[in-house]
């Protein structure tokens, strides 16, 4: 329920509504508008490549080598974004904050980016779409990307003064997600309404379990 409702203070209760898809309560880190269905991947690691493995010390002994290292990182990041583009990936959903170089090349190659998803949001997206997280730095960075979900739309959404991301996914299960937008004059009223609705849904779940049995 926490991932399927959003509260907006300062608006009348009558402004509450149900929206198809998911509402992520954060803004795009990069937004590249596109029409129709689009392919999306979920990542749980930084896409700026590391210069060394975890626990391995990397020593740069001159300014020239340091600048060469930065150029290598930029080239490899650009190559990854070009690979996403060649696989028709238009949306990157990340559980971690990405470096500026990643955002720069994402904009350059037409890939929208949403950062800092919670573990619950990532789990819900993976359940709806049936995909797992994409790991780009495996044995072959240039393999075909099979861990892609299909989004029917992805657009900015303004809730009060807060910019959010509104996404609709093609679901692989019977569950078709919708998000409840709860409006009220103050946060306290919204919390009361959310608690009441969550209680009602729990009661309905219990009721239908008994009917099924």
UniProtKB/TrEMBL annotation:
The protein, known as: BBS10 protein
Organism annotation: Eudyptula minor
Residues spanning the signal sequence: none
GO biological process: chaperone-mediated protein complex assembly
Gene3D superfamilies for the chain: GroEL, TCP-1-like chaperonin intermediate domain
PANTHER family: BARDET-BIEDL SYNDROME 10 PROTEIN
Domain of life assignment: Eukaryota
């Amino acid at each position: 329920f926490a991932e399927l409702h959003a509260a907006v203070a300062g608006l009348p209760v009558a402004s509450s509504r149900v929206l198809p898809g998911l509402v992520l309560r954060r803004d795009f880190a990069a937004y590249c508008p596109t029409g129709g269905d689009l392919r999306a991947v979920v990542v749980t690691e930084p896409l700026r490549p590391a210069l060394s493995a975890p626990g391995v010390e990397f020593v740069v002994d001159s300014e020239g080598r340091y600048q060469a290292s930065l150029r290598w990182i930029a080239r490899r990041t650009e190559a990854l974004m070009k690979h996403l583009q060649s696989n028709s990936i238009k949306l990157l959903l990340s559980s971690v904050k990405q470096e500026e170089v990643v955002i720069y090349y994402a904009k350059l190659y037409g890939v929208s980016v949403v950062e800092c998803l919670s573990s619950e949001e990532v789990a819900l997206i993976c359940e709806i779409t049936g995909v797992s997280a994409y790991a780009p730095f495996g044995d072959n960075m240039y393999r075909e990307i099979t861990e892609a979900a299909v989004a029917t739309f992805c657009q900015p959404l303004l809730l009060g003064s807060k910019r959010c991301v509104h996404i609709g996914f093609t679901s692989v299960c019977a569950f078709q997600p919708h998000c409840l937008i709860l409006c009220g004059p103050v946060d306290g009223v919204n919390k009361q309404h959310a608690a009441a609705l969550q209680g009602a849904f729990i009661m309905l779940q219990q009721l239908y379990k008994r009917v099924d049995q």
